[in-house]
Amino acid sequence: MKIATTCLFKKLRPGVGCAALILVAACAAMRLSAAESAAVVTAKTLQVLDTFDARQGVAVDRDHVYAVNNYRITRHRKDDGSPQLQWDGISEAGPIIHLDSGMVWQGRLYAAHSNYPRSPMTSSVEVWDVKTMEHVASHSFGIHLGSFTWLDRYQGYWWGAFGNYDKVQRGEQDPYGKTVNTQVVKMDEQFRVLARWTLPQGILERIAPMSNSGGSWGPDGYLYLTGHDHPEIYVVQVPARGMELRWVATVEAPGIHGQGIAWDRSSDGRILWGIRKRDRKVLQMDIPEIAPRRASAAMSQIRGPGQFEQE
Description:
Blueprint: H1 18-37, E1 39-42, E2 44-50, E3 57-60, E4 64-68, E5 72-77, E6 83-88, E7 98-105, E8 108-114, E9 122-129, E10 135-143, E11 147-154, E12 157-163, E13 183-187, E14 193-198, H2 201-207, E15 214-217, E16 223-226, E17 232-237, E18 246-252, E19 262-263, E20 271-276, E21 281-286
Parallel strand pairs: 1-18
Antiparallel strand pairs: 2-21, 3-4, 4-5, 5-6, 7-8, 8-9, 9-10, 11-12, 12-13, 13-14, 15-16, 16-17, 17-18, 19-20, 20-21
C-alpha cells in the first residue's frame, strides 16, 4: 500500500540549526516506519447481498443483517438477503438526520447518529428493537467532540469515534472540524467518555478529507477501522502508553468503499460485514489472521545512582 508522507522541511524557518533538521528528519522517518511496518493482508468476499439501504453501514446478528441508510434501516435474512422489516424515518428533516455505523447487542440495534453536514456538530446514539424494528431509546451527546460515526461493545465498555473533516461544507468557509481532530473514545454504560485516542498520521492521510466512518472490535482484540472511501480497513490497538492508536495492519477489502463495518460475533470464523455504497450492496468477508506486530524498541530507561541524566 502506498502511504503519503508530508515534507516537513518546507516549514522550517531560515537559520534553523542542524540539530533541528536532524530532529525533523527523525520524526518523519518514524512516521514512515510506522506506516511501512504495518502488515498488509487481503480479505476474501464470501457473499454479496442486494439491499435498499446500505449507504452508511451494516449491523449483524445470528440470522440477519441490517442495512443502514441516513434515516432508514432494513432487516434482511442473512442466508438469502430477502428483506423482512424496515424502519423509516421518512425524511432527513429530522429528528433522525444522518445514521452511520450500527451494531446489535442483547436484542437491540445501536446506531451512531449525527446532524452531518450541519453546524454546529451534534450527535446521539439511537436504539431499535431488532424483532419489531421499533425505535426504543436515544442518548444525546449534544454538541460534543465532532460527528459520532460508529459504536461497538468491547470488554464491558462502549467504544466509538467522533469524526472531524477537512472537507468544507456547502455555504461554509472553514473545514468541518479538521480530520486530524478525529478521536476514538471509550465510554461507560451511560456513554460518558472515559478516554480518547488520536489516529496515526498515516491513517489520517488516507482518510482525509473525510474521517473515520466505521469501527468494530475483532475476535483477536484488535480494533478495525474504515475511512469514507477507500477499499481498506485499518487494524489498530490501544497503546500501552501515550495517546495515539498503534497501527498494526491494513486489510485490503476489494468491493467495499470504507463506511460502516461489523464483525459477525455469531460466527466461529473471522467474518466481517461491510457495504458498497455505490450500489447498496452488503458484503460478507473472510478476514485473514493478523500477525502480532513486533514491539518497537524501548523508549525509556531506568537509571540508578551514578547514571542519572542531568541535562
